[in-house]
Amino acid sequence: MAVLPIKFTKNKRDKLAQILWVLNWVSVVTGIILFSLGIFLKVEINKRLDLMAERQLQSVPNMLIAVGLIACMINFLGGKICYDCVDTNKFLRWKLVMLPYIICTFFFTLSVLVGALMCYSMHGQLKEALTLGLRDAMRYYKDTATPGRCFLKRTVDQLQIQFQCCGNEGYRDWFQIQWVSNRYLDMSQREVVDRLRSNVEGKYLMDGVPFSCCNVNSPRPCIQYQITNNSAHFNYDYQTEELNLWMRGCHQALLDYYTNIGHSIGLTVLIIWLFELSVLTGVRYLQTSLENVLRQGDPECESDGWLLENSFVETARSNFNVIKHLGKFNQISSNGDPNIDKPPTAHYGPDNVPPKPLPTAS
Length: 362
Known about the structure:
Structural class: mainly alpha
Helix content: 40-55%
Order of helices and strands: EHHHHHHHHEH
Oligomer: single chain
Largest sheet: 2 strands, antiparallel
Radius of gyration: 36 Å
Distance between the termini: 86 Å
Strand order of the largest sheet: 1-2
Number of strands: 2
């Protein structure tokens, strides 16, 4: 029994072909949108790639770019096929092409769904990549004279100013690393020397943060040094002065930013997938209805169209049997070959006389 059969008249088949022709051209535009979304996501990731550890983050934008390009090509071909299918005679040139085209389009539509799910699954990869990347960027913040790291100070400062964040998980992360270069430490001061000697690794640690952590909305000048020392500042209590520094960590700020982008793109791709699925369904109905017209031999007659000629179970069973016996076509059964055990026929000379054996030397 066919799955979801629909009866089509000649007029309905023509209208379906015309609608699908328009929808395929709309799908070309959706392919361009997918390609553009992939490029946008790739650019956004590359902007702050120095703050992320390598965690295959480029796989999602690359997937969207590839799917967008394939969508343009497949739907361009689909538009041409649907345009010719308005005329039953022109359908004959596409009859053998339509089923492989529908199968390829099905797997392409499935890849669009995979792309949407990948956008929603970016959160886990981003979380680990940002944790490790920001930790290393803060560690090399002071290395302004080291080739390959000299730009990290500016990158981290711009990040904290733009996203109004401080540190990896919070401003206290700066207390655990030396973020001031030794070039700017006055070794003649006893306090500086004592700080360096008090640390096992010889690092200059202090309860201070870079200027980019300062909250521009603070009603008082920013306090970025001796943050936890209440007596060092007038009328100051670091536990209540939340306006002095940005409280949110940059890890959470960036994670929220990219997660929102990923979810927005994922929702758009999911809508495109539903649209592509509807177009694929229409093309399948058009193909089956036109094939039934050819079987009846009357271009003006009514014909049935369906998604599957048999039920899902029967279709799955038949396809499984085809795959199961696919590797047996080239095998030769020994029971069916009557000459398998026969000795080869002896071919003698012209008079059918066996050749004489050569004399051996005594």
